[in-house]
Request: fold
Amino acid sequence: MNAVKLTLRLRREKKVNRSVPVDLLVFAFLACVGAFMGVPFVFMVSTALKPLDEMFLFPPTFIVRTPTLDNFYDLFLIFANSWVPLSRYLFNTFFVSFLGTAGHVILASMAAYPLAKLKIPGRNVLFTLVVLSLMFASQVTSIPNYLTVSWLGLLNTYWALIFPAFATSLGLFLMKQFMEQIPDSLLEAAKIDGANEYRIFWQIVMPIVRPAWLTLIIFSFKGLWGTGSGSQGASYIYSEQLKTMDYAFSQILSGGFVRSGPMAAAALIMMTVPIAIFIFTQSNVIQTMSTSGMKD
Reply:
């Protein structure tokens, strides 16, 4: 364990030998790229604050001229007159997103550990199948998923959205690749000290791959947060009491262009939560994507 800590400390202490002008040039370039990537978010905020007459100006304005909160007021007024309250849609969304994300992270990690560190027969074949499954679009697997959920008797329940999220192959791929970077000597030392596989997994492996499963939480939560308005949510959930917030917001479009303002406000609300989660965990995401392993 001390060797691992020493390796990580030495990696953090490495400095790139660059001149000050080059550093300023790199900083300016990254600032421009960051500002460009933030343009869509600024535009969505501006659109959500526009009055209805300003939304349909031509040519369109990028920055709102007369900001107003009427769109948000109209949005909550629409749900106030609905027989299913907004709080119910909000609960459904958080419930599905939380359980689906937690189950996916735990199962993906537990499945990745033996593929990465145990000499089980056929593990390379299994991992090859996992990699191949990443190539299939969700539209290709929608019918098999529906038949599986129907066979299990989970239609029109929360589990119809939660259960398929457990088997997403992206999490298994990410966790397996990250766990392979853990030195085998560290796990062997733990076994010599008397630790079993369960203790090694929960007390040694999982803390080390913390950046990986935090990144997986973001990916999984983002996918489940927007579930409900597509074919999957519409096919699996029939009861209005069980539908998610994304589905409820999509129904606003049925009111025509007069509801463009509330729809812009709804889109901003739906986007805010995943962005907030990413902001709080972005350092771990960057570490996951940029790490080159602990073996070197």
Summary: The chain has one domain: 69-290. Residues 86-117 form the longest helix (32 residues). The two ends are 16 Å apart (CA to CA). The chain has a mean pLDDT of 80.
